[in-house]
Specification:
single chain, alpha/beta, six-stranded parallel beta sheet, 12 helices, about 15% strand, elongated
Length: about 325
């Protein structure tokens, strides 16, 4: 029999229609969903200091409703839990939270650890973070991968913010997103390769101050926010996706790029290797010099379907089965 599950969290507006961890709420018919957007003041932007008010309301409503369910799953638990009010354990219903961010960099790390210790199970999105929470803090953490949906889109022509289209004769390297991106490394690499006219960088989803650095750069194309058809069309025609990550758990850009057979250029760090197909399907670097040398050796990519096949294991139906096993063990 399906467990009655309440999913509590929010939809990140920065994600594409097919992406985002909120797709976890498709787990089953016996589940209910409580979203931040449904509570008073829930449409306040996440960057605003006022977001603490609707987040507090969301968490209080979740605590009030929890007794109606076998499982409560806080799917952005490290964001939505009230900072200094741990959940109380119960014999009749269990509380699970998914952690997305780097705990070591959190401002109120001790309070967060105390909150996590009070939960019945903690889901993390990388094997490295599972080891860290178990070994360093003796927390009951389990690694269950982030899921994804294969993008469904219509191919369209995509122009950068200056109206220029991608030149398919060049080696086109796409960089997507902003969270945990090392843009200082990106800046140095782009500068070192400015004398290589065959290599063209493309920048999508970066902060505005980063985009502004490259307004006049010959080897970088900057894009305004793209709607889904444009975004996935650009991924499908690029040669490589370069993600200069400084920390990683799950990454929508990584999963979606592989599903569209786009090889990635990635650092060899924990979290990346949980989701990325091994070399030679993807390219991994261990230092800035190693990265530079590998970029200098690049040729036009050959897409043969191997990456698309590899990433099947992370499709949401497979993740739901892993969740089902975890919930069974708890109840």
């Amino acid at each position: 029999m399906k467990k009655r599950v309440l999913f509590s969290g929010f939809r990140d507006p920065a994600h594409s229609k097919s992406g985002g961890y909120d797709w976890i709420t498709g787990y089953g018919d016996a589940s209910d969903i409580l979203l931040l957007s449904e509570v008073p003041f829930g449409n306040i932007p996440m960057k605003s200091g006022w977001i603490r008010l609707p987040l507090a309301i969301l968490d209080l409503l979740t605590r009030f409703r929890r007794k109606r369910y076998d499982i409560v799953h806080l799917f952005y638990g490290d964001v939505t839990m009230l900072r200094f009010l741990p959940y109380r354990k119960s014999r009749t219903h269990k509380v699970v939270a998914t952690v997305h961010l780097d705990i070591e960099t959190r401002r109120f790390k001790k309070a967060l650890i105390k909150q996590l210790r009070a939960l019945d199970r903690i889901i993390v999105l990388s094997s490295g973070q599972e080891r860290e929470l178990k070994e360093k803090y003796d927390l009951d953490a389990v690694f269950i991968p982030h899921g994804f949906n294969r993008p469904v889109f219509e191919k369209v022509n995509v122009a950068d913010r200056n109206g220029r289209y991608l030149d398919r004769d060049k080696i086109n390297i796409l960089t997507i997103g902003k969270t945990y991106r090392d843009f200082d490394l990106y800046d140095r690499i782009v500068s070192r390769l400015c004398s290589r006219p065959e290599i063209q960088f493309h920048l999508v989803g970066a902060p505005e101050d980063v985009k502004s650095r490259y307004e006049n750069a010959k080897n970088v194309r900057v894009y305004n926010r793209l709607e889904d058809n444009e975004f996935y069309s650009l991924i499908s025609i690029a040669d490589y996706c370069f993600l200069p990550l400084s920390f990683a758990t799950a990454n929508n850009s990584l999963l979606e790029s592989q599903s569209l057979d786009l090889p990635l250029i990635l650092p060899s760090i924990a979290g990346v290797e949980d989701y990325a197909a091994p070399a030679p399907m993807n390219i991994f670097y261990t230092s800035e010099e190693d990265l530079y040398e590998k970029l200098c050796e690049l040729k036009k990519s050959k897409k043969d379907g191997q990456l698309s096949e590899f990433v099947e294991r992370f499709e949401w139906p497979n993740i739901y089965r892993l969740l089902d096993s975890l919930y069974d063990n708890l109840v």
